[in-house]
Model the fold of this input.
Amino acid sequence: MQPILEMRHISKRFPGVLASDNVNISLFPGEILAIIGENGAGKSTLMNILFGLYQPDEGQIFIKGEPVKILNPNQAIAHGIGMVHQHFMLVSPFTVAENIVLGAEPRRGLSLDINKAKKAVSEVSHRYGLRVKPEATIEELPVGVQQRVEILKILYRGAEIIVLDEPTAVLNPQEIKELYAIMQNLTSQGKSIIFITHKLNEVTNISQRVTVMRRGKVMGTVATKDTSPAELANLMVGRQVLLQVQKNPTEVGNTVLAVKDLVTQDLTGEKLLDRVSFEIRAGEILGVAGVEGNGQTELVEVLTGLRRAHSGSVHLNGAEITNFTARQVKERKVGHIPEDRQKRGLELDFTVQENLIFGFHYKPPFAKHGLLNKQGIAQHADRMIEEFDIRTPNSETITRSLSGGNHQKVIIAREMHQEPDLLIASQPSRGVDIGAIEFIHRRIVAHRDAGKAVLLISPELSEVLSLSDRVAVIYEGQIMGIMNSSEVTEEQLGLMMAGIRPENYHPLEERSPVHGR
Amino acid sequence: MADKERKASGLREILVPLGATGLGLVVGAVIIMTIGENPLRAYAALFYGAFGSLDRILGTLTRATPIIITGLAVALPFKAGLFNIGVEGQMLMGALAAAVVGSSFRGLPMLVHLPLAIVAAMVGGGLWAFIPAWLKARRGIHEVINTIMMNFIANAVLAYLVVEVLRTPGEMIPKTPPILSSAVLARFGDSIPGITARLNMGFVLALLAAVALYYLLWRTTTGYEIRAVGLNPKAAEYAGIDVPRRIMLAMVLSGLLAGLAGAERILGFGRTLFLGFSPGFGFEGIAVALLGRNHPVGILLAALLFGALSSGGMRLSFATDVPSDIIVVLQATIIFFVAADQIVRAIIFPKKKGVA
Done:
């Protein structure tokens, strides 16, 4: 069979970096090809070349056997290539129909023919089984549906080759399942899909073939059914990876964090946290599992002084810290790895050394009498870069230019350098590559082994289960139950994540786990 | 690759304002040609007018002095993510305070009187900035709207007080009583014969202010926090920085600087306050800060350029048929190119395709 798309011997050089090094990929009609690789492996560069955003220095692109030159995204679209970016390119206040036809609007005279647009949109959405209301505005839709709109947008433009750039990063487990169904439906209708990810389980779930990239090179392309996650992981990072975290039992000590009947509300009075109570003891990791948006963010914000509790109490090492300011909480040795490292955790336009003291910048050895101590800051940065293996040209590099994994290492180095009694880690491995995930996990476990308390929040069940000693499940602001992670099954957790408490659930036959590993 | 772009951007930081200035001069040359004059001759006259003699050089520095300070006053809150359009009004209030204190307290020794007048001016500007600062930090009211409104109020207050209350009896135009000799900023011309330029110690204060701003922003924890708030307030909050307080501080410090600009005009340059003493130094400060990329050194250079254009403009209109209005056109064109820096980038770096 002739490939619908071939990229042959593609090389792309940026000053000092070979972003694509003689890359060959091929995509067959009706196929889902997964491209996996760590951050910075060259996946995005390759796709940007395909979409006409970059020109390759060497190599050629063939569509249905014909060599083509793609100079800009419009030409890519004309060749039937459609791309769904990780960050959606939608106009929030516009309707679904308006967004889909944007740039290729049906017109009547000078004005937009909205009825024709709506008809065209419902036609496309029917044909591919992608249900959306054309009249709904984007801002009222959940992310999963917004993504559908993005897919419809490229289908409307006649895409035959669909590139999905890390499409699952923003979705909850249910939405991921729906996306898989959509992808299968599309391929059954003859579309071909390139699926970019760095999550191994997704590759095995959905693709027919996998291309593994590392440092701009293709390490291999294999049929999915002939490979294993372990083999793929090795190809990705070039060494053996411990997918299972090694963890020894430890003695738990005194209660470090005690949260009692914590309630917080939004402006309308709706409860975002509803009588949340739990304790974490020294030498223990408490994991909080749950679908994103069930109060995890608010819980962390209340604990770290970024949001007010309306009632209830928080005690740290026996002393009350309820509604302390962020700085007061930090002063009591609480480390916080925030869920959104770009929005909260870093000043992207600060240098690495400036970020490594962020939040501690006013204290010796970084400052004295309100003056920054350049030398102390630089020495600290060099130590942290070494200890936490932060890959940066030097400590005066602007943080923005580092990769996602290194961003996270900067935060972890900063939050762990004072050896906090309590470490709050919110989605610590979100969007970082496998090598960095492994490093982060080992660090968190080491922190617990050193007799400190850890609160771990993650929507990834496998992460919560493999790291935590105990697991709490949060649903609509309430703790559904807390269990020892060694005794709980993914099925039980899945039900609790869906709002069913353990005491009133009766196992049914043929009930599958909510979230596959 | 992103790393490389970063490194290149440091160079561009300098090249873009330079390129904008060059392009502005090119556009100006075209306009001068359409008037029927030789642009080289015109620019030579302009240059001579600005730097042709010691007196002219000092004149250029004199004209640059207030806009160095107002440029700094715009840059500081900008680093905290705020746009202080109200530097003009804050400067007027500073000038008012300087005029009142400088013309009162006869008999005070200079050592007390001069600092008192300067501090009064700075406090005047600072208080005028405090109002929009508080509204912004505690009530979320946008500082651009606030400060623009405060400018109108400052103008009206100044007009009322100068015409109705402070007016020197027997003067044709309304102006405040002269500054007492114990409160003046000494002029360099007083000790150098043949100098008519009114360059005064305020220029030294402006240079000190530039150094102080640099030191504040990059050497103190307060400056660190101000920059953090400006770049990413959410992250600043996370790091335990009191964002509203830093916003207020940046704004009030800006007001203090604006007041200092007023002090230089009244105590050093004019030695009295008459309405219309400022052709809009506060607004020129916005342009200077923009051209100087909000960096103290950049602001010094940008203010020097604008000062040279203004002081050379007179000579230009005497020596050629080009009206001095061309200066305003030049300034506007330069700022246009700074704001539309993509155009400048496209002209300076034409081959860098694909690197955004």
Remarks:
- Residues 5-237 of chain A form a domain with the Rossmann fold fold (CATH 3.40.50.300).
- The longest strand of chain A covers residues 17-27.
